[in-house]
Amino acid sequence: MKKVLILCLGVLALAGAQSATSEPTATVNVAITANGFNPRNVTLSAGDTVVWRNADTAEHQVVSDTGGFRSSPVLAPGRTHTVQFETPSAYSYHDGRKPANTGRIVVRGNTVNIGVTSIRAVYRSPIRVFGSVGVARSGEVVEVTITRYGGRTETKTVVTDSDGTYEFTDRPTIRTEYKASWRNGDSPQAPFVNVRPLVVFSVLSARNNQFFVRVRAQRSYRGKVVRIQRQARNGVWVTTKRVRLNSRGEARFQGNFPRGRTIARAWVNSSPGYVPGFSNAKTIRR
């Protein structure tokens, strides 16, 4: 009998110790509306859950920008999507049906974390770099080391808001990595952004089949070959012409598009520090 009593007391003591040390978790509800996510920015603790509910009359979809959490299927009105965030980090997402509507989730841990709003960007287009520190307090200094392809580094100093989060805008010109430091500790994450060059494809004279292409990047595309492509009926891009860029990274050229309506673009291969680039599609009528 004594052995049974001692065993029961031991189990109760262990259970009490576990309940005393475990952290309570919370659920945050985010409404998806025609105007965007409400609330748009959410700060959590590890283990907390987010429930998105489609509060609109149209379909919506929660899509992670970086693959950091499970995206939702297309949500009909009234449907929900639930994700539990176990790992302290910074997450961004958008509405798959309305990409301009975006949201941000910061999961606070014991140290600093960092995230980016996109892992792909066009040359000099803005991205947001954001994260949190281990305390919900304003005035904490975070040092972000920005490493550009080729080894050039720069440091950005930011200060946290009242909830211990920070955020700033960067315009990467080449493949770029970000790492945060706070109180002598480094972020376990070091996200990077792949950059594609800015490719401009212009119609000078559709009637005369005359066109212009320009490629802009931190590194010169002088002498590089640009492929001029048209979109086939099955959606596949077919190369119709190859154009070599001059010393300014530009070229004027005579196209060979047929009479009628053609959807066309310019495409350039990958280069050190850059992923393949392409222009916006143009509708050409001849």
What does this molecule look like?
This protein is mainly β and 286 residues long. 7% of the residues lie in helices and 49% in strands. Strands 10, 12, 13, 15, 16 and 17 form a six-stranded mixed β-sheet that branches. Strands 20, 21, 23, 24 and 25 form a five-stranded antiparallel β-sheet that branches. It has a four-stranded mixed β-sheet with strand order 2-1-4-6, with no helix packed on it. A hairpin with a 6-residue loop joins strand 7 and strand 8.
How many distinct folded domains? Answer: 3
Biggest pleated-sheet summary: 6 strands, mixed
**Helical proportion?**
under 10%
Output the number of helix runs: 1
CATH architecture of the largest domain: Sandwich
The value of Rg in angstroms is: 25 Å
How many extended strands? 25
Categorize the overall geometry: flat
CATH class category label of the largest domain: Mainly Beta
What fold name stands as the CATH topology of the largest domain? Answer: Immunoglobulin-like
How confident overall, as mean pLDDT?
Answer: 91
In terms of DSSP E residues, the strand content is: over 45%
Order of helices and strands: HEEEEEEEEEEEEEEEEEEEEEEEEE
Unreliably modeled segments: 1-22
Based on secondary structure, the structural category is mainly beta
Distance between the first and last residues' Cα: 97 Å
